[in-house]
Amino acid sequence: MGDAFRRAAAQINGVEPDNIMCCNGGDDLLTIAMRAFCDEQRPVAFAEPTYSLYGVLARIQNCPVVDLAYDHDFGLPPDMGRTGAALTIVCNPNAPSGSFVDAKELLDLANELRGTGILLVDEAYADFAKGNCIELVARCENVVILKSMSKGYSLAGLRFGYAIAPKEIIDGLVKVKDSYNVDALAQAAATAAIKDQEYLRENVAKVQSERQRMTDELTTLGFQVRPSQTNFVLAKCREPSARDLYDKLVERDIYVRYFNLPRLTDKLRITVGTKDQNDKLIEALKDILAKPE
Ligand SMILES: *Cc1c(COP(=O)(O)O)cnc(C)c1O
């Protein structure tokens, strides 16, 4: 199913159409993988903080979670390959940290997991990053890559994503997915979109350049900003608190993300917008910081 898209995606990613499965958004692949690989006896492992859906899907599937923590610099936990989990998920680049792990490290992790578990690399944000892990699919029989059209292609409403994996894994995942998980209109639009690599490059270049500008401006305003490989930045706030800043921005109709979670309560996740939106955010922050109560 989705042959035209699979051919186009295979060519762009340097794999075969047999290595591609179409999904109703990348989230659909997470559900399919969790149902295929995990149950009460087969745990999932991931390092936190990360994409909150992993934990939600695990709870729905009644599958135990091996809860690991990223190190202070958002490097992978050293014991990640030895948890015994059936499925290990690495969001790369990671949300909401914006951090990035090299393919070499993930290759080592995949090799460590060989024979015991699957490594799923969630590359929803990889279009904005300096690299990706697609080469691992040819080298490791236990790797699944998640791709999404929602971020780099700005097509979140289309609901289209796909898996890249060895043929044997794709064949298994296809048995678990809904028979008709992507509709014909979405397939046509996604195929046209992925063939337009020129648009993707321009879109990504704009985001990367604004990401750098936001990082610089926020740093000048006193925020600590992690170098980001995504389309958002994670900014650590001093005074006022992240929660206060979040509220004050909402009052001005500016929406960023605040997470009441370990390691994140002093930070805001700010999506890189258009130049105009970014200017408005920076101006609003200057204004708020200039008049403390
Ligand atoms: C956006 C996102 C996805 C997939 O999103 P879809 O819109 O379902 O394609 C998967 N993982 C992460 C971390 C994301 O941010």
Gist of the model:
The protein has helices at about 5-15, 25-35, 55-60, 105-115, 135-140, 165-175, 185-195, 195-220, 240-250, 275-290, and strands at about 20-25, 45-50, 65-70, 85-90, 120, 145-150, 160-165, 225, 230-235, 255-260, 265-270.
Question: How would you characterize the overall build of this protein?
Answer:
- This protein has helices at 3-13, 26-37, 53-60, 103-113, 135-139, 167-176, 184-195, 197-220, 242-251, 275-290, and strands at 20-23, 44-48, 65-69, 87-91, 118-122, 143-148, 161-164, 224-225, 232-236, 257-258, 267-271.
- It is globular.
- By secondary structure, the chain is α/β, with parallel strands linked by helices.
- The strands form two sheets. It has a seven-stranded mixed beta sheet, sandwiched between helices. Strands 8-9-11-10 form a four-stranded antiparallel beta sheet, covered by helices on one side.
- The longest helix has 24 residues, at 197-220.
- The structure holds pyridoxal-5'-phosphate (PLP).
- Residues 25-27, 51, 91, 95, 122, 124, 148, 150-151, 156, 161 line the site of pyridoxal-5'-phosphate.
